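dumping this here before i forget
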Amino acid sequence: KVCVISVSLQNTVVGFNGSSVVLPCSSTEHHLELQDINVHWRHNDKIVFDIVKGEDSVEPQDPQYKNRVQTFPEEYERRNFSIKLNNITRADAGVFICFITHSSSSDQETVRLFIN
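structure:
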């Protein structure tokens, strides 16, 4: 069973066409084992990036994000699952959702990206 334990306040990120932005996402659940955590980044129901059991996974990634997402694996132990989105375009504007799931709980963070 999965229950939502917290939803953080919405983050707003402003980026410029062709530049890179870091989309923040972190969990306060530091007692959980990293290999028990899955992170799912979504944008308009498209798969931006998945981190499965603490490992990067691009298997089901939407082609729109192929080779454009950078992660920070060294930060996973600190429960920081932020991603860097490179070469952004107007198509990337909107709401990105970061779902952090674990067998005992789940977090959801929302990031709104504006393109200038």
